[in-house]
Amino acid sequence: MKWKLFYRYCILFCCIIVIIGCNNDDNNNSRVKNTGNTASAYISPPILSPKVLAEYPHDSLTYTQGLFFYGGSLYESSGLYGQSFFGQIDTNSWKYSRRFPIEAQYFAEGSIILNNKLYVLTYQEHTCFVYDPLTFKALSSFGYEGEGWGLTTDGKRLIMSNGSNTIQFRNPENFAIISTLAVHDGEKSIDRINELEWVNGDIWANIYQSDMIVIIDAKSGAVKSWVDCSELRKKTKGKSQAEVLNGIAYNPTTKRLYLTGKYWGTIFSIEMPQP
Question: CB within 8 A of 192, min separation 6: which ones?
Fold first, then answer.
């Protein structure tokens, strides 16, 4: 009788061990599958190199903060206290055909024209100035919290950066924040977002203190591609004082991009890089 009980307990014990082992295998397999799915979900964005199509002269005394096309004309804002200005560049001579100074107590930053109004950000003065783009007459101004860095538009909203990883979409009528977008490469947050440009539904942005441009999905904030422009700085004239890349302008008519930097003596026309 005791032997029969012993055998029964042995069989029961073995069954329990087998069941536990199977459960552990299932859990391990599940973890492997989940890990595999997570890993395969993220693909590192490509790093592209710009192909230079042409080089044009640029005022190497300009501390470029904003660069954009509007109505076929090229415009630029330049920073620093006591030296800030906004100007229109003649693309035949590549000199300023018109320009006006910003008051000395303001450090001009990004700029854009939307609905026949010129918007110019200031660095730490919490003010966006609004001008008539034809006369450069001051029309109004808006206040905002934090710093002002880059500015562009999708044709309806103003799109602003402030040096963080967050891009703000603002109402052009009152400068109120409509929504925000966090920029990220996988799980890594990308900050120091600087000068901005809207290009075919994507947001192109300079990364401050680098010669990298990031191409951002305007809906998700995910980085789609990086553009390494370090070779351009080596080629620019005015090398003795050339600072970082800063200035992206897209001409929708010619489908060309124009890049320059702070104190760069050259504006580069580039072909749209392809992955």
Answer: 163, 164, 207, 208, 209, 210
Question: Identity (one letter) of the amino acid at 224?
Answer: K
> Which residue type occupies 5?
L
Using alpha carbons only, give the angle 74, 142, 62 rounded to the nearest 5 degrees: 35
- CA angle centred on 80, ends 262 and 153, rounded to 5°: 70
pLDDT exceeds 60 at position 32: no
CB 267 within 8 Å of CB 90: no
Enumerate domains of the chain plus CATH numbers.
Answer: 62-231 (2.130.10.10)
For the segment 179-204, what is each residue's pLDDT rounded down to a tens digit?
A: 999 999 999 999 999 999 999 999 99
- Bridge-based pairing of strands 95-101 and 108-114 is unpaired
Q: What share of the chain is helix, strand, coil (3-state, %, to 5)?
A: 15, 45, 35
